[in-house]
Each structure stands twice: as structure tokens, then as C-alpha cells.
Amino acid sequence: MIPTGLKEFVAVVENGGFTAAANALDVSTSFVSRQVMRLEDRLDTRLLHRTTRAVRLTDMGRIYYERSREILDHLAVLESDMADLQEHPKGRLRITAPGYYAEHFVAPVLVEFTSKYPDVTIELDTSMHLVDLVADGYDLAVRMSPPTDSSLVARKVAARRMMVCASPAYLAKHGTPKDPEELREHNCLSLPEIHWRFMYPDRIRNVKIRGSLKSDNGRMLVAAAVKGIGVVRFADYYMRNEISRGELDPVLEKFEVQDAATWIVYADRHHMPTRVRLLIDFLVERLRAMDEQSIEVLQK
Fold it and tell me: What number of H helices and E strands is found in the chain?
């Protein structure tokens, strides 16, 4: 923070008087005079000899002017550097995003981002572990649900359509469920969970599921479903290739909830580093475009 009166004092010295300094700063002469007097009062030192014909520095004033000029020069360089960083961001970014989504969606965007901003270093954590952004030192997270921590900001990237799928062979053998409650009689291959959520006309219901295979490795579960072992439920993007190839068929589509989404989560900071702000905007734009492409693939 620049001390009160410092800028006005320097202007008086460099412009040769109070009136000229006021003109240079586009303020009144009386304002410049008051600011310099307050500066002298705070320092308890006279900085300027004032006469009706001229203004000149005292010995202490000369020393203070030289140091003040250095401060203002450093600030000018700093402001120039900050403006340059707006165009050429630098520094490290730590990001966390879950496995498959990170690999197939987030990672390609980050590659594109580093190509555009080569002075930014990116560290991507693709584990399924839910990290503490602030405590663990992450700049942002891509998550499949909004945060429960009110100190974090969540920006919605795109809607996710949840889908229950099974192979044509499985459905031919075990029948196609017409109601989510019928899943109780099917082999549901799932993450470590015991309920799937569905939208009924009156409310959302949790349907208890059971199955012969549980894992936090979703690709294994999808592969098992393709083999006809059971039923799976994931976001549309996760199974779009299997669906487009006819290896999996969606069922119970009219019962799917519509509140699933992908979110970018970050700490609420008033002065966000430029590199973080740029990456957030970049991710939102690219991930939304990818989401639209995924919808087009599934609709074909």
C-alpha cells in the first residue's frame, strides 16, 4: 500500500511545484498541499521548503524522494509484470479428477491448455479419492457432484445422463426390467453401493440392488455387463462406445433422475491467480463441447 501523500510529494518534486503537480495528477492544488502536509505530519519531518516563488527539497526530503521514487518505479514494474501475466500466465496448477473422466475428458483438455500456455505446469491426480482442496493444496477439482463444503465454489460444467444398461444376451435370457423395483431380481454390477436412485411420478426413490460383482473399477463392471453377466448403471459418456456398438442396451430410461452433473470445484478466493481463472474457463468451454458431442453419438 502506497503511503498517503507519497505520490503527491513525488509529483511536486518532479513538476517543480504544487500547481504543476495538481495539473499532472488531475486534482486540485489544495488537495496536493493537504496530502503532502499529512505526509510530513506522519513522518514528523519537513520534506519541502516552501516560498512564494519556489519549492525545494530539504535534506531529509531529498532522501525520502529518492526512496519514494524507487518504490514507485518498483510498483510500475510490478504492474507491468502483472499485466504480462494476464497474457502469459506462469506457475503450477494442481488438479484432481476421477479416473475414467479424467483420462478421456479432462486430460485432453489439459494437454491443449499446456500447449496454449507453455509456462504453466500442471499436475493431474486421477485417483477416486475425494481430496480436501485447501488442505491438500489443489487449485481445483472436477467432480461428479457439488461440494457439501460451503466455502467452496461449484461451477456446473454439463449435465450427466445416468443410464441402466445390459447386454442384449442378458436381457434375452433374464428379461427386460420395466420398473426399477424389478432390479431386485437382477444381477446388478455396481460400485460399492446398495441403492440406485430413480425418478417416479411422485418422488425420487432409492431402489435396493444386489449383485455378484462390486468394484470401484467401473471399466471392469462395464466389461462384465458386455459379457452378459449383469446390469450396470453409469453416466452416458462412460458407456457410449458400448452403446453405439450395440454391446449394451439402455433400459428404464424414463425413470432416470435428471440432477446428475459434472462440476468444477475450487476455493472461494477474491484474488484468483490468472492461471486458475483461465483454466476454469477453458475446462468449462471444452468439456461442454465434449458433452454435446457425446449426446450426438448416443442419439445416432
Answer: 10, 12
User: Does residue 157 sit in helix, strand or coil?
Assistant: strand
**Among 125, 232, 254, residue whose Cα is nearest residue 183:** 232
The pTM score is 0.59
Instruction: Tell me the C-alpha distance between 254 and 199, whole Å.
Output: 8
Q: CATH topology of 6-76 equal to that of 162-255?
A: no
pLDDT averaged per 10 residues, the chain (length 300): 83 90 91 92 91 86 89 74 65 89 90 91 86 84 82 84 94 96 94 87 90 90 96 90 94 87 81 83 87 52
162-255 fold: D-Maltodextrin-Binding Protein; domain 2 (3.40.190)
| Residue 2 DSSP symbol | P
DSSP 198-251: EE-SS-EEEEE---S-B-S-HHHHHHHHHTTS-BEEEEHHHHHHHHHTTS-EEE
**Residue ranges of the domains in the chain?**
6-76, 91-154+262-295, 162-255
As a whole number of angstroms, the distance between CA 166 and CA 143 comes to 26
Tell me how crowded residue 271 is: count the other CB atoms within 10 A of its CB.
5
